[in-house]
Every structure is written in structure tokens, then in C-alpha cells.
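Incident review: delayed structure delivery

Summary: a single-chain prediction request sat in the queue longer than the usual turnaround. Root cause was a stuck worker, restarted by the on-call engineer. No data loss occurred. The affected request and its eventual output are reproduced below so the record is complete for anyone auditing the incident later.

Affected input:
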Amino acid sequence: MGTLVGHVAPGFGFLIIGLWHLFNHIKLHVQNPNSYISPPWFPTSKYKYLELFIIMLASTASISMELIIGPDRHTPFDPDGTIPSNHLHNFEHSSISMTFFVYAAFAIILDKIENQSKFALTQLLASIAFGQQLLLFHLHSADHMGPEGQYHLLLQIVIFISLSTTLLGIPMQKNFLVSFVRSLSIFFQGLWLMVMGFMLWTPELISKGCFMNNEEGHKVVRCTDHESLHRAVSLVNILFSWFLIGVTVFGVSFYLILTKLFGGNKVRYFSLGNEEEEERENVEKFNDDVESQKGSLVGNPKSFIHVGKKTFSPIDIER
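Output delivered after worker restart:
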């Protein structure tokens, strides 16, 4: 994963999945605002499990790249069967991919059984995948110092949001905002991974005062002095803040566009004939009430008229 392609390829996968979820969650909520329930994944019209199969295929490709295709001898092990230090990160990255593969595989199996807990279990599996991703990026064996370390630190914040919202989605299935933030965070994960790939492994984009150094078989960005390092890290923070603003604007704008496309204005129609008939009945009922009140006054000359707290009879009024 410590290459441009190793970051851009999985980043593109996260970006597409996040965008797919964002689109479907907004569409589902706009069309069914009162009965909205957040699904953990979305089927397609032709192939129901296409999303999950893509996750499994991408995870398999990632594992193959990390453990078989990527290493020089096409094996991550030393001749004595031990794992060399420069291949520890390959096992860490492949473990993340394995967890997402397990999530997708069991999501298909759980969907085929009739069980009330299958939604919660699928969400739990997704949470475990994000938790594994966060754990291994946080405890990474690679020396993530300098600009690369700052990129990974900010990535962990986005992963934590994905993890938190996925866990919150278990008891809050009807909460659209939780699903919206989760989808947007997955999209942001992919975008930031792609940015990392280009910014860290494109010599022209490396911060001034820093350079690309070959260490233990892969290239790492190092800086010449503390001032250059501080400047590079600050630029990473600024870049992240700009992308955060951009993703926020994109997410809300995407919501507004889809609301206009799929929402529409629901017009309520009323029958004029029924309204007129109902109004006529109300008028007749009112007239009947007035006539009945007049009759009661005529038939009961000794009726009382109440004024405030004092009561007067007709005789008292004449006096």
C-alpha cells in the first residue's frame, strides 16, 4: 500500500462505495421520509449483491497485491518462514482487506436467512471492519513520521467517524442523518487516500524542503530540517481543512439536487362538490341549532338569563 497506486486504488473503491451509499440513502429518504429505514448495503436492479461482490473482489485483489504480487520474491516470508520487518505493513494492510471481505461474505449469507437480527449483525460486521482499519492504521508498524504520519493521523479521524456512525446505525435505523454522515465519511476516506497517494508519491507535489527517501524497500517523504517538517505538516492540515469544506459543500449540494429530482411537490387535491356539500350541511346544522334555541326561549318564559355571577328571571328584568 506504500505506493501511489496502493493508495489511489483502494481510495477509489472507498470513494465509489461512499458515493453509492450517499446517493441511495438520500433517494430512499426523499421518497419515503416517514418510513425510512437505513439498510447496511444496497442491491442493484440486475445483480442484487453487486456491491458486496465488488467489495469481495477488491479485497481479494488487495490481499494478492500485498502478499503475493507486491513482494520481490512474490512471498512476504523469509526463506526460514519468518516475516521480515519490511513486510509487516503488508500483513497489516491485507488484514484490513480480509476483514472487509468477511463483512461482505457474511452480509450475503445473512441476507439469505429470515432473521430479525440480520440487519444488526451486518452493521456489526461493518463496524468491526472499520474498527480493524482504525486499529491497524493507529498501530502501524511503518514509521509514519513527518508528512506521511500527519496524513495518516487525519485519515484515522475520518475512519473513526465511519466506525461511530456505523455503530450508531444499529439502534438508530430510522435516523437519516447517521446514514448520511456515514456515507459521506466513507466517501471522504476514499478521497483522502487518493490525495495521500498523489501528494506523497509525486515528487512535484512534495512540500518544499522535503524529499523522497528510499527506506526498507519503499519510498518515504523526509524533510531536511525541523522548519521544513513543521511547514509540511501545517500544509497537510490546511489541505485537509479545505477538503473537509469541499466534501461538506458537495454532500449538502448533492442532497439538495437529489431532493429536487426525486422529491417533487406533492399536491393535495380536494373535491369541490364534497366541500360545498359539507359546507351546506354545516349551515343547515347551524340554522337548526338557532331555531331550537328560539323554541326553548318561547316555550320557557321563566327561563333565566345569566349575567356575570348574578342570575335574573324575566320578572326581575321587568321591574
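Verification: The radius of gyration is 33 Å.
Action items: add queue-age alerting; document worker restart procedure.
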